[in-house]
Design goal:
This protein is 30% helix and 26% strand. The radius of gyration is 14 Å and the shape is globular.
């Protein structure tokens, strides 16, 4: 997961995953939210991509079903992950 370094993000696994979930199974790179603000959450699974607004003033979300779009978004994520190590928030 790529995530802005915020108090809410630091509590994400505690809030959204089961109590007995092994947190070592999830890898999170925290980035500087001022430099790289994320306004949407993007999830890629199978041949679906969901986008959900993180802004309460813009409550919107979509799910796209497309194997090609999911593959492209997965590639973009993998590329961003490689580059994100240069911008990890400290």
């Amino acid at each position: 997961m790529l995530s802005p370094l915020t108090k809410k993000a630091l509590r994400y696994l505690d809030h959204y995953y089961p109590k007995n979930y092994d947190k070592n199974l999830t890898e999170i790179l925290f980035i500087n939210p001022q430099e790289y603000p994320f306004e949407y959450e993007v999830n890629i699974y199978d041949h679906f991509v969901s986008m959900i607004s993180l802004n309460a003033d813009e409550p919107i979300g979509i799910i796209m079903e497309s194997a090609l779009y999911a593959k492209t978004q997965r590639s973009i994520f993998n590329l961003a992950w490689l580059g994100a190590t240069s911008f990890v928030a400290r």
